[in-house]
Write a structure and sequence with these properties.
heterodimer, A: 512 residues, alpha/beta, TIM Barrel, six-stranded mixed beta sheet, four-stranded mixed beta sheet, 19 strands, globular, B: 233 residues, 9 helices, binds CO-5-methoxybenzimidazolylcobamide
Chain lengths: 512, 233
């Protein structure tokens, strides 16, 4: 081993550069898990919930609303159909799901950023769906396409986020029937990470697929997954035509969907954890099996959005213990089923990036990490129950994302990890700072938070006595300032713009 | 569970004042049968329907509303209370109509086209019923035509539009514009709500009120109806 401190390393300038680049700057496409899963249900309990879920399917059934094509597929597969109610006999959904991949690659336009969803891996993506944005300077306001681009850029810069996400915020300044073009285009143009598609109308899903074809090529898209999209169940036990139509378009084109029972327990499911898990499993089984009816082998993810309502107002609550138990239980059920699992995120109900936001978010992020979530939507930026995307919280959460990655890797038990040489070298009563082992390892030994201030009170005061939110404000601005777009093939860019212009001019602007 | 109280007594043995107080408690406890019975007893004793409505029912629900706002009563309890109120209203409604007393008000409510978020709308309906309104819930995903048909059929005082998506809330304007176009706008109080809306949005689409939550919706509705009735009086 080199003797530390006896080499020329470029002196001040190169050291400064190296130290300013965070350890998290290396390009990573996912987290490889090195620690065991945390199961809150034993074998007997899991079997009980599985049994109850099959009972729900067979006895109560699931509504597939305004979707005669879906009903026809189910009828052919052997389900009992009554009106719009589908009752798959015990075991049918599981049987159908045998064609669903255990894990799959979602390709990015930069192949080095293609990621794998499933197995012992975790992929992190930013928050999704908020109509408002917030920052310290301008407060809370409706999001615009400019904000959307900013969050795509911030996600691109933050390497701990492996996926560009989808509706990182809703560009309310664009017409409803056309904003999906600009959203998909922004993901392609301002990032080269994998991204999500539009689901608010089957036509918009098709536009997403068509734009992906321009980027990846027609044939490639047919046998490779290049988008993952969010299909929410209208719990309890209902799929609506919009979601079914979009799911169908994606599955037909071999693109991934996340079938997500989206539960505000108490309103959308029973108030107990076991009852909620039962409903989640039944809904997910039915939705995922539907994708396999559309196209056997289409990639699909078992989603779970777990929250509870405040019984005092009906408002969604986050970071409380019961939804964490739901999340952990659902992860175990998905693992037994052999299907990739989506849940988690930095969920909170707080209005600003304060202590409530931090506690609630940490609770969900950690439950998700322990549970072994494969695809974590809402990792960064989420405030106010998903109504607000916060610039400051985004960079705070991105720091947490990097920490999760370190934690999940687990404990290094290599010779270097065992550190016997350091123990021998120092012995009783001394300190380890000068040990050879320390000199060789110190830089990467401990996660260096990009957000925390650990200085003395006096230094913190001299630096302006900045609280976390103010530091975060400086950080996101610096990141946006340093942002450089990944190169995009000019011909592809032109083809995308041409496609969008043509499609946009084909219909009038609409507000629905 | 709350502790069981001695409830083994006969409502008809109470004097008027005791009975009204008891009905306030029974509304609070969500006891529909008892509220229907109490309402009938007061009517039998010669109370006018309007007096029963205001003193026994609305008075009781006001207490429920205050304690809901203050976090003492929970949603499922308010749901029961509203249901009990509805039971009493069922008895009073024909009598109020006979005597030409204006009912508290009627509302048609539904989520707009493309929107299936209905938890908030359901809570609004519940609070409105609790405040004595007749609520016609036309469910989710309503087109302009469906709203118009419901207005035509039910002739409500209030049209309530709910939306939770930025992709669907602009449709509120489509509905309101159509009312304007058909010269129907002034016939109705239009209230809008849903988490992604705000005060300015409500004003921009031409609604009479934006309501941030269900309790506020009931309070605003009462105010707006009173204002309108006194303006027309
Ligand atoms: C007439 O007068 C009035 C007066 C007052 C009125 C009123 C009318 N209406 C409401 N009020 C007011 O009083 C109520 C009681 O106090 C209040 O009602 P609220 O509804 O605000 O409050 C309720 C008591 C509790 N709140 C809620 O019920 C809504 C909570 C959130 C988390 C939510 C839920 C639960 C759901 N969702 Co959806 N959902 C979100 C919501 C985020 C949020 N925090 O609001 C939001 C609104 N959803 C969103 C999205 C994206 C979607 N959702 C979808 C689906 C669903 C579920 C079906 C899973 C479920 C709804 C179930 C149901 N039966 O309602 C999809 C669309 C479905 C559709 N076509 O409508 C889908 C598109 C998701 C997808 N990719 O599949 C986001 C909005 C995006 C946007 N562009 O605007 C969202 C902000 C979450 C997010 N970050 O993604 C007040 O607003």
């Amino acid at each position: 081993m080199d003797k530390p401190g006896r080499r020329r390393s470029g002196g001040r300038s190169s050291r400064v550069a190296a130290r300013q680049a965070s350890a998290a700057d290396a390009l990573v496409t996912h987290i490889d898990r090195g620690i065991p899963y945390f199961d809150v249900l034993n074998e007997e309990a899991l079997a009980l919930i599985e049994h109850n879920a099959e009972t729900v399917l067979e006895e109560i059934g699931i509504d597939f609303k305004d979707a005669p094509d879906a009903l026809a597929l189910w009828r052919n597969a052997g389900a009992v159909i009554e009106g719009e109610r589908v009752r798959p006999p015990r075991g049918l959904c599981r049987e159908l799901l045998k064609t669903a991949p255990k894990e799959f690659t979602q390709h990015a336009r930069n192949p080095a950023r293609s990621t794998i969803i499933g197995g012992d891996r975790t992929v992190l993506a930013p928050a999704y769906g908020s109509p408002f944005v917030r920052d310290l300077d301008r407060g809370r306001r409706y999001a615009t396409i400019e904000d959307f681009r900013n969050f795509v850029k911030l996600t691109y810069i933050n390497q701990g986020l492996h996926h560009s996400g989808g509706t990182v915020c809703e560009p309310v300044d664009l017409p409803v029937n056309k904003r999906h073009f600009d959203m998909v285009y922004s993901h392609i143009k301002y990032s080269d990470k994998p991204f999500m598609g539009s689901v608010t109308h089957p036509e918009r899903a098709q536009d997403t697929v068509d734009m992906a074809k321009i980027v990846f090529g027609d044939a490639f898209v047919q046998d490779h997954c290049v988008t993952t999209s969010l299909i929410n169940v209208n719990s309890p036990m209902t799929f609506d035509a919009t979601m079914l139509g979009s799911a169908r378009v994606y599955a037909e084109n071999n693109q991934a969907t996340i079938i997500s029972p989206f539960i505000l327990a108490g309103a959308m499911s029973p108030v107990t954890v076991a009852g909620t898990l039962t409903q989640i499993l039944a809904e997910a089984l039915a939705g995922m099996a539907y994708t396999q009816l559309v196209r056997p082998g289409a990639p699909v993810i078992f989603g779970t959005f777990a929250s509870a309502i405040s019984m005092q107002s009906g408002a969604p609550t986050f970071g409380t213990p019961e939804p964490s138990l739901v999340l952990l239980g659902a992860a175990s059920l998905a693992r037994r089923l052999g299907i990739p699992f989506r849940s988690g995120g930095g969920l909170c109900a707080s209005k600003v990036a304060d202590a409530q936001a931090a506690y609630e978010s940490a609770n969900t992020l950690q439950a998700a990490a322990f549970a072994g979530v494969n695809f974590m939507l809402h990792t960064a930026g989420w405030l106010e129950g998903g109504l607000v995307m916060s610039y400051e919280k985004f960079v705070m959460d991105a720091d947490q994302a990097n920490m999760i990655a370190v934690f999940l890797k687990g404990i290094d038990l290599s010779e270097n990890g065992q550190a016997m040489d350091a123990l021998r070298e120092i012995g009783p009563g001394a300190h380890f700072l000068g040990a050879t082992h320390t000199q060789n390892n110190f830089e990467k030994a401990f996660y260096r938070s990009t957000m925390a201030d650990n200085n003395s009170f006096e230094q913190w005061q001299e630096d302006g006595a900045l609280d976390a939110e103010k530091r975060a404000n400086m950080r996101w601005k610096a990141q946006l300032n340093d942002y450089e777009a990944p190169p995009l093939d000019v011909a592809i860019d032109e083809a995308l713009l041409e496609f969008m212009a043509r499609r946009k001019s084909a219909s009038a602007d609409q507000d629905y | 569970m709350t502790e069981a109280f001695d409830d083994d007594f006969n409502l008809s043995e109470l004097d008027d004042q005791e009975l009204v107080t008891q009905m306030h408690d029974d509304l609070y406890d969500g006891l529909k049968d008892e509220i229907v019975e109490g309402t009938e007893i007061l009517l039998d004793r010669g109370w006018g329907a309007e007096k029963v409505l205001n003193e026994a029912l609305v008075g009781g629900m006001q207490i429920v509303g205050v304690d809901f706002r203050d976090g003492i009563l929970f949603v499922p309890e308010v749901l029961l209370a509203a249901n009990a109120m509805k039971g009493g209203m069922g008895v009073l409604k024909p009598l109020l109509a006979e005597t030409g007393v204006k009912p508290i008000g009627k509302m048609v409510i539904g989520t707009v086209k493309g929107d299936i978020h209905d938890i908030g709308k359901n809570l609004v309906g519940m609070m409105m019923e609790g405040a004595g309104f007749e609520v016609i819930d036309i469910g989710i995903n309503n087109s302009v035509d469906e709203y118009l048909a419901a207005l035509e059929e039910h002739q409500p005082d209030i049209l309530g539009l709910s939306a939770l998506l930025t992709t669907t809330m602009p449709y509120m304007k489509v509905v309101i514009d159509e009312l304007v176009k058909r010269n129907l706008r002034s016939q109705y109080i239009v209230m809008v709500g849903g988490a992604p809306l705000n005060e300015e949005f409500g004003a921009a689409v031409g609604a009479d009120a934006y309501c941030r939550d269900a309790a506020e919706a009931a309070a605003q509705a009462t105010r707006l109806i009173e204002a309108r009735r006194s303006a027309n009086a």
